[in-house]
Amino acid sequence: MDGWNSMIETDVLVIGAGPVGLTAANLLADQGLRVLLAERHPGTSDEPRAISITDESLRVMAEIGIMDRLAPEMLMDTGARYFGRRGQLLAAVRPAAPRLGQPGKSQFDQPVLESLLLEAARQRPLIDLRFNTEAFRISDGPDYVDTVLIDDAGKSTVRAKWVVACDGGRSPVRSQLGIPMEGSTQVQKWIVVDTVNNPGEPEKFAEFHCNGSRPVVVVPGVQGRRRYEFMLLPGEEAAQVTTPAAIQALIAPFRRIEEEDIRRAAVYVAHSRVALNYRAGHVLLAGDAAHMMPPFAGQALNAGVRDVANLAWKLAATVRGEGTDALVDTYQAERRPHAVDMVRLSQRIGAVVMNVHPVLTAVRDAVVTASGIVPAAKRWLTGMKFLKQPYFRSGCVVAPAAGLSKSAAALVGRSLSQPEVRLRSGETAALDALLGAGWAVLRFPAGQAGSFEVQPFAGPSGENSAPVTVTDTAGAFTALAGSGISLIVRPDRYVAAAVPAGDESQAIDGLQAYLPRLSLSPVQVS
């Protein structure tokens, strides 16, 4: 530390260097902010916890710049198979066709992800990493927040404009602030066993064995990794089921394993809880500190990544004097409803998987099988359309005008598609590469099918970027082709507004309560 009782000034203090805290630190630094990242442990976790990652999270990882090293460590584009009480296949589900430039669902290894995010953070000069450092008393002020940090060298105070607490489900920060959690705790206990040295090529499906006796989940990975999860039966205790012999017996119906194949085994109880408030003054909660959910939908880590992707650019705008306090308030308005949806979905899937009542499981199997006969129901189930994507009806968005086409209006408040597009030079690029780090506009000129314009807004120093015309070779925006519509896109790649081309300034005016200085400042192109 800088000395006993020293004062350290920074823009944002991030507490917790798990995957969400590391993602937050990288995104904040990329917005030009000074970040101090404090973690009470000596390093990142070496335990595999989260295992499923979505396209939206991978889009963020690509933005941070680690996808080239992360991809070989993942089993990408995976689905799930659900088996009934007699072992029969009830349904095989897969995400819809990729829309955000990455597969809808993939399996990853959390220690690998954390190590890559940590390496990225160490390469960013604006990030000050502090391990073996614990955050204690937080004192909020009118324009800053002071946090006492303690490490082996003693005590210091960090004065930051904002604190982002990514300190986990037991969040000491949340407890100190007195923010209650709403929800419940699951009655059933589960044991999760991560194994290595699994032979052969993994199938790209997780398996949910809803057998009505001891439900089991099997999740494949690359490089011989595989996860098994078993529901504990009444009377079973952690000390009993986590012995190597007990684990070998549990896994025996699937494969024979040796003791050295067991990477980790732990018993857990899932929580379904969401913080009543995500903000207290200059302190904000993110990740498990803000919401906890059962693992059945694979959304816990992904919800945390969505949190900090939503929050980073908003904090940056306020630090630069471009955003208002109301902009920060939109974080909870936009993120909490979707977190609640994901908690409820996880509970519903868990109820299907964990049911052991003989009559109810028979009815469940019959209903799921029958749904396959109805085309619409089958598409809803097998296409994983039950997994709702974030949709902001309020917050930093402009409500579509009454006369706007349905196809354009439906994009407002949703993440922008990211196809590969072709430049006039003939080269191809991912759309995100052309949007820049800030706000941007996409224009679909009237009568001009197959191509559109991309123009980043003026940057912090006021520099302009000329529009770039690209060809939509993938047909991602076919519904808007030649429509004369403009899309105003936020830094987190969500669509803030959709308007006729002549109304762009009017749309930007509609965001003035959050960003009074927001301006496209277009250039004249001859």
Short overview:
With 526 residues, this protein is of the alpha+beta class. It has helices at 19-30, 55-64, 67-70, 110-122, 172-177, 238-241, 244-251, 300-319, 325-354, 358-371, 375-382, 406-409, 431-435, 504-509, and strands at residues 6-15, 35-38, 52-54, 79-83, 89-93, 105-107, 127-130, 134-140, 145-151, 154-165, 181-195, 205-209, 216-220, 226-231, 262-275, 279-280, 283-285, 291-292, 420-423, 428-430, 440-444, 451-456, 468-471, 485-489, 495-500. Helix content is 27%, strand content 28%.
Could you name the key traits of this structure?
about 525 residues; alpha+beta; FAD/NAD(P)-binding domain; 2 domains; 8-stranded mixed β-sheet; 14 helices; Bifunctional 3-(3-hydroxy-phenyl)propionate/3-hydroxycinnamic acid hydroxylase; FAD/NAD-bd_sf; FAD-bd; oxidoreductase; EC 1.14.13.127
Main CATH class of the largest domain: Alpha Beta
Percentage of residues in helical conformation: 25-40%
Number of domains: 2
Count of individual helical segments: 14
Query: Which topology of the largest domain does CATH recognise?
Result: FAD/NAD(P)-binding domain
Strand content: 25-35%
Rg of Cα set = 24 Å
Any low-confidence stretches, pLDDT <50, length ≥5?
522-526
Shape by Cα distribution: globular
**Number of strand segments:** 25
**Main sheet specs:** 8 strands, mixed
* Computed structural class: alpha+beta
* Integer average pLDDT: 92
Distance between the termini: 56 Å
CATH architecture of the largest domain: 3-Layer(bba) Sandwich
Which homologous superfamily in CATH is the superfamily of the largest domain? FAD/NAD(P)-binding domain
